[in-house]
Specification:
heterodimer, A: alpha+beta, Cytochrome-c3 Hydrogenase, chain B, 2 domains, about 40% helix, globular, B: alpha/beta, Rossmann fold, five-stranded parallel beta sheet, three-stranded antiparallel beta sheet
Chain lengths: ~500, ~250
């Protein structure tokens, strides 16, 4: 067998992952995905292993709920043929491996730095000397934006090539937010410190990332979370989705200069995040999710309060949406703006909302179940046009859907609250993978432990990792004035990408 | 038109009338109080993920605290977090709260430069720089300007360019890759200008203090006018902090 089949949150001995030669590794993994839209690569990365580099590739099958893991040992000096030349969805992963270890790919089309990690192989590569794609022409001009942007948002550089007002090409250069998260997980030994790092990966997806980290840790320690813990996580994940999607609707309205929508959606986000504070003491749910324990038990009273919040929220949210989606001036800015086709989305391997906008049925809440999702009978919301309109529609419908899920959950609030238990030490020489559907899409964390059960390697993949390229493709042939609304309709994470 | 009026009517009154006295809902973790109860101090100190708690004398540093509340969970009689969201100071040491202390945190008015009130008392335009910030502080600074908190009523606003700004607000621990852009942005801001550090990550590096990928040398070069703790900063903490800095003291 060239690979091992595992399920979400399963811990296996690292020696169970077959180690195959690069040619077989190449064929196995590319043939998994080739012509199979229901399969995608959830993580592909390398780590130092006895003076060589061990590559680990994880491919998820959305229909069979399986994850296929294989590995391969290579030398730093090897010149390898790239997966990307055959399948574009490996593009980012191979750039990362090249940046971290200096491995050369002979036929990679775009072997540029990815995030300027502090422990990168070639320190002479700096974000100041990044080689942008350019076209020599008297008729074209370039527009550079960032790293610091006009609003209160994170840094990143955008380089447009425009013909008049029309965008021909956009290249996005990231890495400004790099804080060395993956390495830092290994350096900080205390569990609370690690949980704090996890909630700082992306401050707008606190629940998503801490849940993924908690799943990894609990699986490594052989801890089975009780119903009350799973309940709190499921509810918090859906509530985070409601909060961010509502905020994003406000931001999209701002970018089309629709003041009423901007204000109303903006203020509608407030009661939702204030509810997080009522429950956990923090508006963005920092401190709420912790491995192996129910940090803030969810009471009947809290359930009643949440129902009250939704009862007030829903009519206003629905009324505002009816108005927004009947305004010709708003619709003309949404429809057929920033289109990414089904083919492009499948090629890039985007995840979450950025896949569902173009007809790809990809949702971890259905395909690789965890927490209480098996009971919720979740059905992904899928749109087909891949434009701003589709993305805005998905947000609107997912807010309604998440509220429905939460109301269902509230019908059976677990009475028994699990007592604080000390977690066992993580299993030695093990590998674990955790998938969680955050509001942006699939979050993937992978961990490997050493002979003593200490973390040997930790890998994080935020949904934005792939999805940034979808934004770059979306704006082609659009007017540059439509860039903000395209950008906001995706709302991707800089720090989640840069780590 | 009629629909718009209807929608407006349905929103009711959303703004907070007095942002200096309003009470926050739920269990906000604001200014902590350390009681004089005897506990195993070394255990108490070890608990903190960011070494914000230290001994001799026993105290907690709000510039390092991530407000996770773990200490109060394990030692509920020793430390408690009140709902007091006024946490800003203009002297770094004043963020350290000692055992037994229970006074409101205030700015030291003698340390506020005279030109600040004169120039910015009625209007303060700020340029925000996210330097390794995780987008939580950024979201809360955005929220400070929404219809609920409505910071604009005090003439405080975020602007799109450092050239239009009276000062910069830094969030995040300042990543190595952002060190240069932060300097460029500061240099582009006209004099006189102020520097505000918003959030635990910006004030001390927070959980990232020992990360090799951050570079905080910028902060050693200039005096800091305002430290606003929080993880993330609550909009009310931010507004009250800035108001304290620019309004005239009696």
């Amino acid at each position: 067998m060239n690979y091992i089949t595992i399920s979400n949150n399963q811990t296996i001995p690292i020696s169970d992952i077959p180690e195959i030669n690069y040619d077989t590794f190449f064929d196995t993994n590319t043939s998994f995905i080739y012509d199979n839209v229901e399969r995608h690569c959830v993580n592909y990365y390398g780590y130092q292993f006895n003076n060589r580099i061990k590559l680990i590739c994880c491919i998820a099958d959305d229909n069979t709920h399986e994850i296929f893991v294989s590995s391969c040992l290579v030398h730093q000096t090897d010149k390898l043929s790239s997966f990307t030349a055959k399948l574009f969805c490996f593009e980012k992963f191979e750039r990362e491996i090249h940046e971290n270890f200096g491995i050369d790919y002979v036929d990679h089309p775009w072997l540029k730095p990815l995030r300027y990690a502090h422990n990168r192989f070639d320190k002479s590569k700096q974000n100041a000397n990044y080689q942008f794609y350019s076209i020599d022409s008297d008729e074209l001009h370039e527009v550079g934006v960032g790293p610091i942007h006009a609003g209160i948002i994170e840094p990143g550089h955008f380089r447009f090539i425009c013909n008049g007002e029309q965008i021909l090409h956009l290249e996005i250069q990231l890495g400004y937010q790099h804080r060395g998260i993956e390495q830092y997980f290994l350096e900080k030994k205390n569990l609370l410190q690690r949980a704090t790092i996890a909630e700082n990966i992306a401050g707008d997806t606190v629940v998503g990332h801490t849940t993924a980290f908690s799943h990894i840790w609990e699986s490594l320690c052989g801890f089975k979370a009780h119903r009350d813990i799973q309940f709190a996580r499921t509810l918090a994940l859906e509530l985070e989705r409601v909060a961010v999607h509502t905020g994003d609707l406000s931001a999209v309205c701002t970018d089309i200069a629709y003041q009423l929508g901007s204000s109303v959606f903006g203020r509608l986000r407030t009661p939702i995040i204030n509810y997080f504070q009522e429950w956990s003491g923090n508006r963005l749910a920092k401190g709420l999710i912790r491995p192996g324990r129910n940090q803030f038990p969810f009471s009947k009273l809290l359930g009643e309060r949440l129902k009250e919040v939704f009862d007030k929220f829903e009519p206003d949210f629905t009324e505002m949406n009816e108005e927004l989606f009947s305004l010709p001036s708003a619709l003309s800015r949404f429809e057929r703006t920033g289109v990414v086709s089904f083919d492009d989305v499948s090629k890039i391997g985007t995840v979450g909302m950025s896949a569902r906008m173009s007809g790809v049925n990809r949702d971890i809440r259905v395909s690789h179940l965890y927490c209480l999702y098996p009971e919720l009978n979740h059905e992904p919301i899928i749109k087909h046009h891949g434009d701003v309109y589709s993305r805005v529609q998905i947000r609107k419908h997912e807010v309604w859907q998440s509220i429905k899920h939460i109301r269902n959950l509230l019908n059976s609030i677990p009475e028994e609250i699990s007592a604080d238990s000390t977690l066992n030490k993580p299993k030695p020489n093990s590998f674990t993978l955790s998938l969680v559907e955050g509001w942006r899409g699939e979050i993937c964390h992978c961990a490997i432990t050493d002979v003593n059960g200490d973390l040997l390697h930790y890998k994080v993949k935020d949904p934005s990792f792939h999805n940034w390229l979808a934004l770059a493709l979306a704006v082609r042939n659009n007017e540059i004035s439509d860039f903000p609304v395209c950008n906001k309709s995706f709302n991707l994470s800089y720090c989640g990408h840069d780590l | 038109m009629f629909n718009n009026v209807k929608i407006l009517y349905h929103q009711g009154k959303q703004f907070i009338p007095d942002v200096t006295t309003v009470e926050v809902p739920g269990i906000f973790r604001g200014r902590p109080i350390i009681s004089l109860e005897k506990v195993d101090q070394s255990k108490f100190v070890e608990l903190c993920p960011t070494d914000a708690i230290s001994q001799n004398p026993l105290c907690i540093d709000l510039g390092k605290c991530t407000f996770c509340g773990e200490c109060a969970r394990v030692f509920p009689n020793k430390i408690s977090f009140t709902k007091d969201y006024k946490l800003s100071v203009n002297k770094r040491e004043n963020l350290i709260i000692k055992e037994g202390e229970d006074q409101p945190i205030e700015l030291n008015s003698e340390l506020i430069r005279k030109e600040i009130h004169k120039m910015f008392g009625g209007s303060l335009k700020l340029r925000q720089i996210s330097a390794g910030g995780d987008n939580s502080c950024e979201a809360e600074l955005n929220a400070a300007g929404n219809v609920n908190f409505d910071m604009g009523r005090f003439g405080i606003e975020f602007v799109a360019s450092p050239r239009h700004a009276d000062g910069i607000v830094i969030t995040g621990p300042i990543s190595e890759n952002m060190a240069e852009p932060v300097q460029i942005c500061y240099d582009a801001t006209p004099n006189p200008k102020i520097i505000i550090l918003a959030g635990t990550d910006a004030i001390s590096g927070g959980i990232f203090l020992e990360s090799k990928a951050i570079n905080r040398s910028f902060l050693e070069k200039y005096p800091i006018d305002l430290y606003i703790p929080g993880n993330p900063v609550h909009p009310l903490t931010f507004i009250n902090g800035v108001l304290g800095l620019i309004s005239r003291k009696k």
